[in-house]
Specification:
171 residues; 6 helices; single chain; mainly alpha; globular
Amino acid sequence: MPSFTGVVVLPATLSVVTPGDIVLQLWTWHGSPEGITAPGLLGACGVSSVAAMVIVADGAAWRLAVGASMLLAARSLTSVPHVRVLVLRHRNKAVSTGSLVATDLVSFLMAAVSSVLDADLIPGSLAVIAVVAWHWWSARRPVPRPAVIGYRQMGVGLFVVAMTALGVLVH
């Protein structure tokens, strides 16, 4: 596994972002154990490693590979907690938006760093920022059915990938 993968996708491995069985407890929040989850660890490393591997195999610079990997991680980092809150709202459960602010700020930072690494990634970075804004806008709307949430997130993911690819191809 490339050394940068762990740094890029670390936030997506945490239980505040990706629910699941905690593999390594790091802290306790309001009496609830928080830490690294198995699904978060496997999913984040797999997706970002494959993307970086394909880019490097195509002969592109490592900066582009790292930046694109960061954009994928940033998109996941912002989307997973927002979807979790929507599902909880759909079930009429109490929700807290504190972790959403933190994960969105890290997503912004990752998008900015990816743009610095390679200017071709600016459209993808702007797409991640647009996704964060859309999540906050949609949080104020009535909660759609879970299937609709899933389809919208699939569209959001395709939007980020398409904008990133467009930026790289136009260069």
